[in-house]
Every structure is written in C-alpha cells, then in structure tokens.
C-alpha cells in the first residue's frame, strides 16, 4: 500500500481517514496535533507527544496502566479518543512531579516501596491521586459503609476497592495501599 507522511511521526496509509486538528492542554502546556480521529488518547500521548510514562498494558481498559487525569478525573486513556478531549486538561505522570521535585504520591510510593517492576506505577499513582480527589468530594464506592455520610472512612478495604481497576502483576498491593494511606492520613495529594 502507498503511504504518506503523518505529522505525528508515523506513516498514514493511503485512503486513511482525514486528519483532525486537536488542541489538548497536557501537563500545563497547550499541544496542537493533527491526528487520525481514531487515535486513542494513550497513543496521542505516547506516540505523538512522546510522553512514555503512561504505559500501554492491555489496550482494553482492563489493567489501568494507562490511567491519566483528565480535568482532575482519572480515566483509562486507551478507552477514549484524543479528539474527544479537545481543550481538556490532561495530566500524565510526567506532569505530577519531576525527579528533583516529586509529587507527594510519587514520594509515598518510593518511601513505601509501592512498586516492583514499575510498569504499572505511573497508572497506579495517577489513579491514587484521582481516587483521593473522589474521596474528598464525597463520592462513595461499592465498599463505602456509610454512603450518606459526609466523610468517607478510607479503610484498607475502601482503598483496595477504589484501586481495583489498576492491576499490579508483581503484587505490590500492600505497599500501594500503605502509600495511599500515608498520603490520605497526613500528606497532601
């Protein structure tokens, strides 16, 4: 098949869908892209913006490795199209903190040894930050004992339920829960 250059660095197949202009605010920077409208947010971040911290695990929304924050809410970036997020605020692991200035949740994961191979860690951290925002907003989960209460008790069971969309194949779950608990009890996420 004939191919033509793609402004995002790859190659487009002849007869492919026309490109769509998309403007995203990623990690406090406005980014303008020309994308095939079928491009997932995950692929826009990794392949077009070269933000490789967000991981492609299952590419089916089952593992959570691709979790990012969009307008403050956690989402699986493999399950949404980039064009759907025109003008949205997207925060990836690279936007939470820097190596010399870690986000409190990143620091907690390091201090609690909340990772082993590290592949799922960016998604786990983004999900944990989003999850704590949900708790502060009073959003109950399946495990919330008192759904009418204005304050949610963040038990280990509650944390595990809320983080159940993020899989750690190395099974660092006790340390992940400890990291989240540490931030919830004393740190600022």
Describe the structure.
With 189 residues, the chain is α+β, with helices and mostly antiparallel strands. The chain has two domains: 18-95, Ubiquitin-like (UB roll) (Roll), CATH 3.10.20.30; 104-185, [2Fe-2S]-binding domain (DNA polymerase, domain 1, Orthogonal Bundle), CATH 1.10.150. It is 30% helix and 16% strand. The protein contains six helices and seven strands; from the N terminus they run ββββαβββααααα. The strands form two sheets. It has a five-stranded mixed sheet, with helices on both faces. The chain has a two-stranded antiparallel sheet with strand order 1-2. α3 packs across α6. The termini are far apart. The model is unreliable at 1-6 (pLDDT under 50).
Provide a compact summary of the structure.
The chain is an alpha+beta fold.
